[in-house]
Design a protein that fits this description.
The chain is mainly alpha-helical. Helix content is 70%, strand content 0%. Helix 1 runs antiparallel to helix 2.
Length: 132
């Protein structure tokens, strides 16, 4: 019979915190892009709300980092293998998303329908890389 640990390793909490930081930054950026697409209707209030949510997420990430200092970093071999597999598939999916965005931009520009994507309005380096 195998014994499993009920303690969450600090690396797992720090990984979650990095996801929260990622969500805070890019979520706020995408909210800004969407709000600017409204072309004026309620923009100031919505921008304040989006930034407030982003700040709240950032504060949550900082609190996770601080809380992780009190945890041990003992990881079982099973958890280590699962973590490597999860990171591998995360990277594959992330790369596929980037490739899908690039293909969408290329096809939209080739068919002269750049209104089909919204990257050009964001600060995305991909959106500005492909001329229309």
């Amino acid at each position: 019979m195998t014994q499993t640990s009920r303690t969450i390793p600090s690396a797992a909490v720090r990984g979650t915190a990095s996801g929260v930081f990622f969500m805070a930054f890019f979520g706020t950026l995408w909210a800004y892009t969407g709000i600017m697409g409204l072309q004026g209707w309620g923009v100031p209030l919505l921008l304040v709300i989006a930034v407030a949510i982003g700040i709240a997420l950032f504060i949550g990430g900082v609190s996770l980092i601080r809380a992780s200092r009190e945890l041990t970093n003992q990881v079982s071999k099973t958890d280590l293998r699962r973590g490597k597999r999860t990171r591998f598939w995360f990277n594959i999916i992330f790369a596929a998303e980037g490739l899908a965005i690039a293909i969408t931009i290329i096809v939209s520009n080739a068919t002269r329908h750049s209104e089909l994507y919204y990257c050009r309005c964001s600060f995305s380096p991909i959106g500005s890389s492909f001329p229309s």
